[in-house]
Amino acid sequence: MNKTMSIIIINAITVPKERAAELEKRFASRAGEVDEQSGFLGFKLLRPMDGRDVYHVMTEWASPEDFQKWMSSPAFQHGHKATNEQGPVGTGSEVLQFEVVDFDAS
Ligand code: HEM
């Protein structure tokens, strides 16, 4: 039987081309507090290479509860300091949620 090993939560941010450098700058000096959250398994900032204007902020978590806990923590607020203080870089964002499917060989 297939079972879920972890979950992937992606924040897909639409960024006008002239604001892309600013977005990457903000991530380059990110707080890093998410790295210490329980159940946090990894993060990647994905830059579009197909001409689209949507960056994906990809995070991996052990469970939906771990992600929810981070979302409502001070660490989430600290992690979005530049966004909170200077406003968003992008013109919109959408959250995508996936289960990672583990194919059991048996
Ligand atoms: C409207 C909603 C959101 C916007 C506009 C946004 C944008 C940003 C930006 C520009 C940064 C760089 C740091 C800063 O600006 O201070 C950041 C950090 C981050 N964002 Fe978001 N974000 C949003 C919601 C989310 C959500 C729902 C997730 C879940 C996948 C997420 C994941 C992250 C992570 C992991 C970091 C790094 C935090 C750290 O280093 O502790 N963001 N976000």
Written account of the structure:
The protein is an alpha+beta fold and 106 residues long. It has one domain (3-102): Alpha-Beta Plaits, CATH 3.30.70. The chain is built from four helices and four strands, in the order βαββαααβ. It has helices spanning 20-28, 64-71, 74-79, 81-86, and strands at residues 3-14, 40-46, 54-61, 92-102. A four-stranded antiparallel beta sheet has the order 2-3-1-4, covered by helices on one side. The mean pLDDT is 95. Bound molecules: protoporphyrin IX containing FE.
Secondary structure layout:
Layout: E1 3-14, H1 20-28, E2 40-46, E3 54-61, H2 64-71, H3 74-79, H4 81-86, E4 92-102
Antiparallel strand pairs: 1-3, 1-4, 2-3
The protein binds protoporphyrin IX containing FE (HEM).
The site of protoporphyrin IX containing FE (HEM) has 24 residues, from strand 1, helix 1, strand 3, helix 4 and strand 4.
The total of beta strands comes to 4
Q: How do the strands of the widest beta sheet line up side by side?
A: 2-3-1-4
Roughly how much helix do the residues carry, as a percent range? 25-40%
The termini sit apart by 8 Å
Order of helices and strands: EHEEHHHE
Provide the structure class: alpha+beta
CATH topology name = Alpha-Beta Plaits
Which sheet architecture does the biggest sheet show?
4 strands, antiparallel
Question: What is the second-level CATH architecture?
Answer: 2-Layer Sandwich
- Which regions contain 5 or more consecutive residues with pLDDT less than 50? none
Strand % is 35-45%
Q: Please, what is the average pLDDT?
A: 95
Instruction: Report the C-alpha radius of gyration, rounded.
Output: 15 Å
Number of domains: 1
Hetero groups bound? Answer: protoporphyrin IX containing FE
How does the overall form come out from the CA principal axes?
globular
CATH class: Alpha Beta
